[in-house]
Design goal:
- The structure is a single chain.
- By secondary structure, the chain is an alpha+beta fold.
- Helices cover 35% and strands 32% of the residues.
- It is built from eight helices and 17 strands.
- The strands form four sheets. Strands 1, 2, 3, 4, 5, 7 and 8 form a seven-stranded antiparallel sheet that branches. Strands 14-13-12-15-16-17 form a six-stranded mixed sheet. A two-stranded antiparallel ribbon has the order 6-9.
- A hairpin with a 2-residue loop joins strand 15 and strand 16.
- The protein is rod-shaped, with a radius of gyration of 33 Å.
- The N and C termini lie far apart (91 Å).
- Keywords: Membrane, Transmembrane, Transmembrane helix.
Length: 339
Amino acid sequence: MQLTRRGRVAVALVVLAVVMGWLFGARSLNAIAAPLLGALLVGAVVLARNDDPTVTLSAVEAGFPGDDRTLTAAFSGTGLATVALALPAGVDGNTSGRRVTLPQTVDYELELTARGVHGIGPPEVTLRGPLGLLERTVDMAGTTDVTVYPQRYTVGDSAVLDRLFADELEAERQEFDRLREYQPGDPLRRIHWKSSAKHDEFLVAEFAPTERDETVTIVGTVPPGETDEMARIAATIADSALAADHSVEVATPTGHVPPGKGETHRESVLGLLARTGHGTTAPVGSEAADVEITYVQRELVVRVGATEYSVSAFLDHIDGTGGGSADDRETATVAEVTA
């Protein structure tokens, strides 16, 4: 229990009254000091006898950086109080001290700013006695968590990323069937160069139609300092793959989300990427990954199927710009060769 600023002024007045009483008689002491001393005594008794308040913090809906959320704090108890709420890094908002009369419900407007699972609370509560002369701080219990998903990159043309799945992963999963003559529009990667050289014409490899596993397995392993970027790229790919009706599996050093589809599965994937940390191993090995985000020769790279991209090249590939898709550029190259 301690004096407030008002209480310190009251004590100063009591001291002044005592000095005046000593100089000019007891009547001055009775007129000023006695009521103030009585108020201080009553305030101390009331604060000592008041039960400690409790608080219940509401759940906060998960979201992405930049999203706004509301946190509701329900305080029990009686009397006057000042309530405040400290926020962790990753969450912003005006949660400075507010004077309330208990019981009271207080809404805090929050802004999510950085990836992670952030703990909020407990609140800071200070009870104030009658007339605001004394106060005491209460140790509170009551916390809540807010999950902030990794920010995703904007995919300028969703078909571009879908073609990555179709071109890079499909060829990996199909079985070779036969060779046929090149036709305009065939991707350059499908040309079988050894056979073409023997026959003096372009031959294209065709694959037998099979029941393909539609699961896109994403594995991310990175050193410290690269976790946010890995999580952001993985979230971008997973979101696009789910939107294309692929089943998605994700593994990081922190955990593993088995293959699945739907909104609930999407939230599980984003939740893993929100809390993931750094590390060099994951529950699923790189040999089983369709998409691997890892660190090679001091550089973060993205491997899709058998093709490896730097981060900048991958982002250029999915932003819908850069002179057309990979198929467009390869078809143009073949057209130039055959012209």
